[in-house]
Design brief:
Blueprint (H helix, E strand, L loop, with lengths): L3 H27 L7 H19 L2 H25 L4 H20 L24 H6 L3 H19 L1 H11 L1 H6 L4 H27 L11 H11 L4 H23 L7 H5 L1 H14 L2 H7 L13
Helix pairs in contact: 1-6, 1-9, 1-10, 1-11, 2-3, 2-4, 2-9, 2-10, 3-4, 3-9, 6-7, 10-11, 10-13, 11-13
GO molecular function: transmembrane transporter activity
Subcellular location: Cell membrane
Membrane topology: Multi-pass membrane protein
């Protein structure tokens, strides 16, 4: 039982950046926009958060800066796809490439720079409880924020009038516009929220998960987050469960190798989460009825108020 707590803590840490990014992308896609630039926004958030953390020593300010950077990159995406009606798939891919290059440029002077990890919560008497104490009362602020925001997204989408409007925009933007809702503004706010969440996911990587900066340190997590939204069939609760499932897969290959249970090259084990992503997407794609039931009907389609 004593060895269980470190494993669970590692899974939570691996799942948190995925949860941030996937929840943000879920809201974006519910509005009818497909943003494939999650990886680039995560990297932008990671490098800016790390730079601010090094220069100021303030972890929460650094996390906020990471979210702001993700939002700024998302705003560029929104200008292209909502204002200039650019292709969403091509623009999202371009945003990822731009984020990769920009983060490498901004962070080149900070490679190898040490940074203390975000402080963990400590509640006297509760954090000291064996096994459960460190899990529930020994995380850093961003872990708790990811859970709170996940609950807030679920409530917003299915328990609030604003969430109903957002979903209606994703289903039929022309009808929503006809009855007076500002479709472009709603989609812009959704895209900005998704960018902020992706930036927070990247900030968690550079401030807490591995408090350092390295080029391309997201290692494909942005793409896994995109797959998680489909895996969860656009439902917040399943996104939460899926993030922890894929976080567990990320850690499983490391533990299996360290315990000597399997003896294959580490490169093959490192492919495990991505192979699992492909397998899951192939299996889910066979259930076309469920995808049609939950996927926003207008996702990826260009809308113009005058069109």
């Amino acid at each position: 039982m004593e060895s269980l707590a470190p494993i669970v803590l590692s899974v939570i840490a691996a799942a948190t950046p995925l949860l941030f990014a996937a929840m943000g992308e879920l809201v974006v896609e519910k509005s009818g926009v497909l943003n494939l630039g999650v990886e680039g926004m995560m990297l932008g958030g990671a490098v800016v958060a790390f730079i601010v953390g090094v220069e100021t020593g303030n972890g929460m300010l650094a996390a906020a800066a990471g979210a702001a950077m993700g939002m700024a990159l998302a705003f560029l995406f929104a200008i292209m796809v909502l204002g200039l009606l650019a292709n969403q798939v091509a623009t999202g891919l371009a945003l990822t490439l731009f984020g990769i290059g920009l983060s490498a440029l901004l962070g080149r002077g900070y490679v190898g720079t040490p940074l203390p990890a975000l402080p963990k919560l400590y509640v006297p008497g509760l954090t000291d409880i064996p096994v459960l104490g460190p899990i529930f009362f020994g995380q850093d602020g961003l872990v708790y924020l990811s859970i709170v925001l996940s609950g807030a997204v679920a409530w917003f989408l299915y328990r609030s009038r604003a969430g109903l409007i957002l979903r209606s925009v994703g289903e039929n933007p022309s009808a929503a516009h006809a009855i007076g809702y500002p479709v472009i503004r709603i989609r812009l706010l959704a895209v900005l929220f998704g960018g902020a969440m992706a930036g927070l996911g990247g900030a968690f990587l550079s401030l807490s998960y591995t408090p350092m900066w390295a080029e391309a340190m997201t290692a494909g997590r942005g793409w896994i987050a995109l797959a998680l939204v489909v895996f969860a069939t656009w439902q917040p609760g399943k996104v939460l469960l899926g993030a922890y499932l894929f976080g567990g897969l990320t850690l499983a290959q490391l533990h299996l190798q360290s315990m000597g249970i399997i003896h294959i090259p580490s490169q093959f084990l490192n492919m495990t989460p991505y192979l699992a992503t492909i397998v899951v997407l192939v299996v889910i794609s066979r259930d076309a009825a469920r995808i049609r039931l939950n996927a926003p009907a207008s996702i990826g389609k260009v809308f113009h108020p005058d069109g």
